[in-house]
Amino acid sequence: MSALFNFHSFLTVVLLGICTCTYLKMQFPAILEQRTGFRGFFWKAARIGERLSPWVSIGCFTMGVSIIFF
User: Fold this and answer.
1) Is residue 2 predicted with pLDDT exceeding 80?
2) Could you give the CA distance from residue 34 to residue 6 in angstroms, rounded to a whole number?
3) Which of 11, 31, 40, 69 has minimal CB crowding within 10 Å?
4) What Cα–Cα distance (Å) separates residue 19 from each residue in 1, 8, 29, 70?
5) Where are its TM segments located (predicted)?
6) Is residue 29 part of a domain?
């Protein structure tokens, strides 16, 4: 089933996207400088990862545990 119709898969894709964008912004800040257009979506995901870092990390940990055990 695709991630659009399965809520568990959708959350996994969203969390991985936020974590990946945050990592890329920390390593290569010039890539995500543009705040508008298509790259703006990734800039916003990186901003969410920066500001909500403890909550995003808890979500990633919980999602990882649920994938491994359930």
Assistant:
1) no
2) 32
3) 69
4) 23, 17, 15, 22
5) 6-24, 52-69
6) yes
Q: Count of H helices and E strands in the chain?
A: 3, 0
pLDDT at 27: 93
Q: How many domains does the chain have?
A: 1
Distance, CA of 19 to CA of 4 (rounded, Å): 19
- Angle between helix axes 7-27 and 38-51 (nearest 10 degrees) is 90
From the list 65, 57, 68, 63, the residue with the least C-alpha distance to 7 is 63
Q: What is the pLDDT of residues 3-48, one digit of tens each?
A: 667 888 888 888 999 999 999 999 998 988 888 888 899 999 999 9
Q: Name the CA radius of gyration of the chain, rounded.
A: 13
